Amino acid sequence: QLQASGGGLVQPGGSLRLSCAASGRVFGFDSMAWFRQAPGKEREFVAAIRWTGSRVYADSVKGRFNISRDNAKSTLYLQTDSLKPEDTNAYYCAAGGWGIRPQSWKYWGQGTQVTVSS
Fold this sequence. Notes:
By secondary structure, this protein is mostly beta strands. The protein has 1 helix and 11 strands. The radius of gyration is 13 Å and the shape is globular.
């Protein structure tokens, strides 16, 4: 129901655009989000967006990442700019919830790996 893509290897300072294609039923939820997780660490909140377009971001990515959605294409995006090595994570899209806790979200896509390295 959620299919994430767009990850890859990028140099520090580079950019990537992540996408999350959702089935119509899942995309119909009011809100969607991106989380990320490194091996052995807890999944952490990155950004969320409501159907109306209102957005919230984690402090660690504010000013560098931009979350958006194309309702006509049922697709969620995460534009990641000025990437840092500490942004290296598997990135997951989520739907059907709200808040910074992963437990607050109902639907999850598989991860797409972002690696920032020179």
